[in-house]
Amino acid sequence: MSVNLHIFQTIFAFTIVVLACLLLRKYSIIKEEDGSVFARLMTQAVLPAVIFFQLSAIPIQGCQFLMVFAMIITGLLSMSLAMIAGRLLKLSKAKTGALMLTSSFGSSAILGYPFIIFAFPNNPEAISDAVFLSELGVGLPMFIIGPAVAMYYGDNNENFSLKKSFSLSYFRSPIFIAVILGIAVSFLPINRDNSFIAPFFEALKMTNGAMAILACLILSLQLKLKSLKGIFPLFIISAVLQMWFQPFISHTQASMFHLSTIQSQILVLISSMPSAILGPIFAKRYNCAPETASALVFSHIVICIFMIPVVFYFLG
After folding, report:
1. What is the pTM (predicted TM-score) of this model?
2. Which residues of 192-229 are buried (b: 16+ CB within 10 A; e: fewer)?
3. 124-141, pLDDT tens digit by residue?
């Protein structure tokens, strides 16, 4: 089966599960207030376990740093264009910041991991590439640059130490600790088939299966019908930058750096993810047009069902 077809099937399978979860929400089997519990479970337990399991399997290679470099350049270019668009449209300072936050680094963890795992089954190298790229090429710059943008463009008089605390929180998180431990363990001569070690790694492997369902539950509880009235031009700009411009730039850089076909596909797929949900969180914390940021992010999630397969098809 071609990777393109597998991507289409993965997207639509993911959509079916999200719709099923929406039915669960409609009949109050799961409730909106459960979203925070699922989100904490994802970020504090499931994601760290998956990251450690995948990164510890294969030692890091130099070409993976090229992928990270390409992803950071892509995100910064997109953010810069969003800033220019905000000035040309004469947006308020806060809305310009919201546009920048929702047009740069995507939701690689919540959506990217499940897509990669199902699109590249039984391919530990591909999954390791995706995890390394996501955490260092998306998560790290988002936690460092995101608060700075929201603080500068937002209507907030908080001091610099708060922005610093947001940035440093990533380095204290279970996710970053799992990245460091996973990379370290990957260079150790560990026999995963050992009778004492195998059950531990098998338990971590089982966590992979829980990730997709948990991601669908979180998305179904976060999806809301938010009006785009008054911000439709921003929606067009952010969607084009986030899910068209970024994949194109990533694809171009993959060719320049002579990345493998699978690495190019992963780079394009991760860069085509909708806006990260962290954007509205930072926007709300620093009063940087949080309603606008939230509306743009949720609209991205809705249209990504159609955008990702189309973009991936055209870029191959």
Report:
1. 0.75
2. eeeeeeeeebeebeebbeebbebbbbbbbbbeeebeee
3. 788 888 888 887 888 878
